[in-house]
Specification:
Helix content: 55-70%
Radius of gyration: 13 Å
Order of helices and strands: HHEEHH
Mean pLDDT: 87
Structural class: mainly alpha
Oligomer: single chain
Number of strands: 2
Number of helices: 4
Distance between the termini: 20 Å
Largest sheet: 2 strands, antiparallel
Strand content: 5-15%
Strand order of the largest sheet: 1-2
Length: about 100
């Protein structure tokens, strides 16, 4: 989920520094496109997602597994996006991971 770290994190940082609503709107749009990655039985996100189709998928190279680092960084960006947009869906998606484990 390099997109989360680099793009979503960058958009959230840009918004925080400039307060330009365009950055927050683009961050929200990207967050919405990433959300389907969490639609798994455990709530652990898939590490690959087609942003245009809004669909997460397993790849043969990782057997659908996700690393601790990927899950952990999503916590930061999605919780902050939830805080800024006042939308609990982002928070709930990453919180489910913590509740189950």
């Amino acid at each position: 989920m390099q997109t989360t770290i680099r793009v979503l994190g960058g958009l959230l940082s840009a918004y925080t520094l400039t307060e330009d609503p365009l950055f927050l709107e683009k961050a929200r749009e990207l967050g919405d496109r990433i959300m389907p990655a969490f639609e798994t039985p455990t709530g652990l996100p898939l590490s690959h997602i087609n942003l245009a189709q809004r669909k997460g998928y397993k790849t043969p190279d990782n057997n659908g597994l996700v690393s601790t680092a990927e899950v952990s960084t999503l916590q930061l960006e999605f919780r902050y996006l939830s805080y800024l947009t006042d939308n609990d869906a982002y928070w709930d998606a990453v919180e489910k991971v913590s509740e189950d484990f």
